[in-house]
Amino acid sequence: DAPPPQSAALLARRRKSFAKPQKNYYADPPQIERGWKEHMFDVTGRSYLDMVNNVTILGHGHPKLARAAGRQWSLLNTNSRFHYAAVAEFSDRLASLAPEGLDTVFLVNSGSEAVDLALRLAWARSGARNIVSLLEAYHGWTVASDAVSTSIADNPRALETRPGWVHPVTAPNTYRGPFRGPASTADYVASVAKALDEIEQAGEGLAGFICESVYGNAGGIPLPPGYLAEVYGMVRARGGVCIADEVQVGYGRLGHHFWGFDQQGVVPDIITIAKGMGNGQPLGAVITSREIADALENEGYFFSSAGGSPVSCVVGMTVLDIMRDEALQENARDTGDYLKSRLEALGQRFPLVGAVHGMGLYLGLEFVRDRETLEPATEETAGICDRLLDLGVIMQPTGDHLNVLKIKPPLCLSRESADFFAEMLEKVLADGW
Ligand code: PMP
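ok -> structure tokens follow
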């Protein structure tokens, strides 16, 4: 049905005043008014199942979070130069979530800021500038986090416009990359070794290596076994630091692991987090060792006006409390495993389904026109997403070919909602779009 006339007028106002490069979902979007758990409701009262919202990990409209934030707003909100309980308690809780040795926390407001700061820490600690990053990666919009972002889906000119200190290496995509399957580790490690050699041959130093610990932007593809252990070893041997970007894949979403790097059995030098840790409140953090954190003093002091504010810290701690009380990581594991098995069953029936990547509630359903050539089914994926909206499901594509459904709902997803998603997807695949 056509949206109500006032929604169309509002959309026209948005298009007039809201800068164009800020994309929006859908050509004819519903006007969303409120949310509850994994559901969103538009102004006509229609509900949608939100299967893409990787920020709102607790679900929408959580009353405990709203109360805690409101209470803190009415008490005090200021900056972290003041001494108040929340900043000490939250920093301490974040440090205790990280592996031994990563005991020092910076609080910022977004994933981009966290990645930017992590890169500055690598520069300050090493005295060098060169960073190795993966192709097909997204790490943020600020100048430095954008520099290490190589995804051509987000920026078609990304590869021509990276600054000289960024050294992108072959994306370790074991499904459609140049080397396939779990035995491809050595080939992907070799491409990192080559980049490191080139930096050395140019007589330059290495600042570090950054990647998502599960290949998120490509659709939740696990890195090949042992990849990070080998790469981290080589990077450290040359004086660089290893940054794990856990903005999307960390913080419990994988269900089986709290951190993405746990799956690879490694410990990074710097962890970046954001998104879910604030459940939508702008919140980001860098967790590292005291030694690396202190290196930033070579560049002066660090201050973020809203990073680590009392409201942000209370929100962050309340998110952790609710995750624990409602066993959301466990739900991500159980409901995620269940959903993955339902999606794999669709793969038995529909040849368009090339693979189901990921784990927990971080899944990627990749559509291909041919299972041998893996020709990406890009237009089909866009059509499927549009048809899913008609059926009441919010879903978007990801990956350089935009042929992967990025399935990352709130971690409170119920089994009933997982079934609804699988059934609507089945209907679209069976009936067409
Ligand atoms: N790193 C990764 C892996 C991300 O997915 C994103 C956001 N999509 C960012 C960093 C940037 O986070 P933010 O949008 O909070 O700045």
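The mean pLDDT is 96.
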